[in-house]
Write a structure and sequence with these properties.
Elements (H helix, E strand, L loop, with lengths): L1 E9 L4 H14 L3 E8 L7 E9 L11 E6 L2 H7 L3 E10 L12 E5 L1 H9 L5 H13 L4 H11 L5 H21 L1
Parallel strand pairs: 1-4, 4-5, 5-6
Antiparallel strand pairs: 1-3, 2-3
Helix pairs in contact: 1-4, 1-5, 3-4, 3-6, 4-6
Length: about 180
């Protein structure tokens, strides 16, 4: 098993943290993993991308070549990275921020991730954790138990309950999309 995952959007959406959490969950599952990140020179609003490779075997190259799973949380990121999706891969689109996406030779999961964060939790800041719930519940790339532990290990003290709720919301959205597909 080898999964190449790209989490893309803009700075300030928490995608670097999401990549770190996903990599930690893979480690908790006993997998080999590597996580890399890149972002524009702006602190907020510039391009942002976290890549995670999860494998049963040794990982020889630390960057995603063709993504099995691509999360696009902004229009710019979707346009820029959709071409890196592997044939038969999965594109998860935050339709709050992404209105148009290119045709891909794979599965598209349109989910209102940021809208759910605002409506259910009152703050878009939790969209990254909701996105992780969507990603994991719709792909099974790591176990939900390990993801929950990794989230709780990484979020600021005092925010554990709301982040756990964000994860539950994301899992419900992912399960709903999986049922439709």
């Amino acid at each position: 098993m080898r999964q190449e995952i790209c989490l893309s959007g803009t700075g300030g959406q928490g995608l670097i943290l999401a990549g770190i959490i996903l990599a930690e969950a893979a480690i908790l599952d006993g997998k080999n993993t590597v996580q890399t990140q890149s972002y524009g020179p702006e602190a907020r609003g510039g391009a942002s991308k976290a890549e995670v490779i999860i494998s049963d075997d040794v990982i020889h190259y630390p960057e995603v070549i063709t993504a099995d799973i691509l999360l696009a949380m902004s229009q710019e990121a979707c346009a820029k990275y959709a071409k890196s999706l592997k044939k038969g891969g999965k594109l998860i689109v935050d339709t709050t921020n992404v209105r148009n996406w290119p045709a891909v030779n794979g599965e598209v999961l349109p989910v209102e991730i940021t809208k759910a964060a605002r409506m259910e939790l009152g703050n878009a800041m939790f969209a990254n954790i909701i996105a992780l719930g969507v990603l994991v519940s719709s792909t099974g790339v790591v176990s939900l138990d390990s993801l929950t532990k990794a989230v709780l290990n990484r979020v600021p003290p005092g925010t554990e309950a709301i982040n756990q709720r964000a994860l539950e919301i994301g899992c419900s959205l992912g399960e709903a999309q999986k049922a439709i597909a």
